[in-house]
Automatic annotation (TrEMBL):
Transmembrane domains' residue ranges: 24-43, 49-65, 72-93, 105-129, 141-159, 179-199, 211-229, 492-509
Organism: Marinomonas arenicola
Enzyme class label: transferase
Known pathway: Protein modification; lipoprotein biosynthesis (N-acyl transfer)
Keyword field: Acyltransferase, Cell membrane, Membrane, Transferase, Transmembrane, Transmembrane helix
Membrane topology: Multi-pass membrane protein
Catalytic activity, EC: 2.3.1.269
Protein name per the record: Apolipoprotein N-acyltransferase
Purpose: Catalyzes the phospholipid dependent N-acylation of the N-terminal cysteine of apolipoprotein, the last step in lipoprotein maturation.
């Protein structure tokens, strides 16, 4: 098969936007970069949702105007670089401030990270072009949407995954937010990508797009209906008075011995002032002593907590001497119990992938290495009095499937984090936004306690009930409601998304095959008329 598309219109009805066809590849690359960067404004803290649709429309247009698979790969790269370069720029803050490698090396490491996640968009562009050549009876817009979703799914799972800035997070301020309890972040992501690809597909292809139009109208209409006539998926069973303690300890001082002692003293004092609460929550590694060291030290506080029927949940590192392993843990004590070990560790932050190979390289740069081990995949919930709390430490809240598996056994969700690593960047706000989606998907209140903010309590609809100011040592008290029951997403997971895509593909194929047959019949009829004239 030739590596080039025939000009203008093929038998499958493909038209290339000529304005981009003959442009300098450098100009097209810059257009892709700018379009990609624009899309970041759809996410927190900006929340201007239309901009991400523009990003995806430009992505689809660039692929449709590509004359080779290589061109589609490079054009996909341009949009991805702009998007991730702007969207995850907060990674630089952590490496530059705490990585001990200097500005230049920090910029290089950040660029390499951005390049890795961009490759998923690059391959999506290449795959889109290939699929369009192979499947002539399926709408090119649908094939591009499918390829991009497949790339985003791969980005979310390969090498432990990086499911940050998925397409579905762009629609928090739209009706599509109401679809989360039905199909989760992957359903909203599918609708966003299908919607955005439809417009350039309709403009630059003579295919029948009725299947894609029906899928987009159906999902947006379903979101609109649920917005005005909300479905009650879960039932309230009780309430818990909850206090979050936000220590606001500078990251560079957090692990120093003098700071560790004074920080722990503050957390103890703040807790004793809120013993009228049912639950008090400290952030990730609020305690910087090991679990076995601090447990006896906190015995008086633990007894006082038990006497007042107050549960304390805190982050604490743990060391198992028999196996010589370290864990990032969450501990419940007082009127509750349980010790949870973090399962999804942050690559290069909490563990080093391929440590025997990468470790020496990082040593050359002078980067500190962490050596936490992941917890078991089958761990129980934490107990808070009579209630069960599904625990997630920092980065884990971005994994929808991990949250989904825990929901059935829980009355509410709790996540603790230390976003001090990312300073005043957009990272902590994106992290908070992701937590809101987990609450909406699961139909559960979500408690989010962080070191420097943003600490918040989020209700079962994904709305923020209470929020603490960032970079302030403070406490936040509010009522957390407990719920039972499960949403369709918790019950079925990915199946609604797969069903939507399967039906759309079948209808697209059948309608375009019928259109192709009609065109062939028309050409034969026209040819016969000319022969008999």
């Amino acid at each position: 098969m030739s590596d080039r598309l025939p000009d203008l219109t093929t038998k499958a009805g493909r038209k290339r936007p000529s304005a981009l066809k003959n442009r300098s590849p450098y100009i097209v690359f810059i257009i892709g970069l700018l379009a990609g960067a624009l899309g970041v404004t759809s996410f927190a803290p900006f929340n201007f949702w239309p901009s991400y649709f523009v990003t995806l429309m430009v992505f689809a247009t660039l692929i449709l105007s590509s004359s080779t698979a290589k061109s589609a790969f490079l054009r996909g790269t341009s949009v991805g670089l702009g998007f991730f370069g702007a969207g995850v720029s907060w990674v630089f803050v952590s490496i530059d401030t705490y990585g001990q490698v200097g500005d230049l090396a920090s910029a290089l490491i950040t660029f390499l990270f951005v390049l890795v996640v961009t490759l998923f968009w690059s391959v999506s562009g290449w795959l889109s072009w290939r699929l369009i050549q192979r499947f002539k009876h399926i709408s090119p817009a649908l094939l591009i949407a499918f390829s991009l979703l497949l790339g985003e799914f791969a980005r979310s799972h390969l090498f432990t995954g990086f499911p940050w800035l998925l397409p579905g997070y762009a629609i928090q301020e739209t009706w599509l937010f109401e679809l989360l309890p039905i199909g989760g972040i992957w359903l909203t992501s599918a609708v966003v990508v299908l919607t955005a690809c439809l417009i350039p597909g309709r403009l630059f292809s003579n295919h029948n797009h009725i299947a894609l139009i029906m899928a987009v109208l159906f999902t947006w209409s379903a979101g609109l209906y649920l917005h005005y006539f909300p479905e009650k998926w879960v039932s309230q069973t009780g309430s818990i008075k909850t206090t979050l303690v936000q220590g606001n300890v500078p990251q560079e001082l957090k692990w120093q011995q003098s700071t560790a002692a004074s920080s722990l003293a503050y957390y103890e004092k703040a807790t004793r002032e809120h013993l009228d609460s049912d639950l008090v929550v400290w952030p990730e590694t609020a305690i910087t002593y090991f679990y076995h060291e601090v447990r006896p030290f906190l015995s008086p506080l633990r007894k006082q907590l038990a006497d007042t029927k107050t549960t304390l949940i805190t982050g604490v590192p743990d060391y198992q001497a028999d196996t010589k392993t370290y864990y990032n843990a969450m501990w419940a004590t007082g009127n509750g119990f349980g010790l949870y070990y973090k399962r999804h560790l942050v690559p290069f932050g909490e563990y080093i992938p391929l440590a025997s190979i990468v470790g020496p390289i990082l040593d050359i740069f002078g980067m500190p290495m962490s050596s936490f081990s992941p917890g078991d995949s089958n761990q129980p919930t934490l107990q808070v009095g009579e209630w069960a709390a599904a625990p997630f430490i920092c980065y884990e809240i971005v994994y929808p499937e991990q949250v989904r598996r825990f929901v059935r056994d829980s009355d509410f969700l709790i996540t603790i984090s230390n976003d001090a690593w990312f300073g005043a960047s957009i990272g902590p706000w994106q992290h908070l936004q992701i937590a809101r989606f987990r609450a909406k998907e699961s139909g559960r209140y979500l408690i989010r306690a962080t070191n420097t903010g943003v600490s918040a309590i989020i209700d079962q609809n994904g709305d923020i009930v209470a929020e603490a100011k960032q970079f302030k040592r403070t406490t936040l008290t509010a009522t957390v409601k407990t719920f039972s029951g499960i949403t369709p997403y918790v019950q079925w997971g990915y199946w609604p998304v797969l069903l939507l895509l399967l039906i759309t593909f079948i209808l697209s194929y059948s309608s375009n095959k019928a259109l192709s047959k009609k065109r062939i019949d028309e050409k034969k009829s026209l040819l016969k008329k000319r022969l008999y004239q």
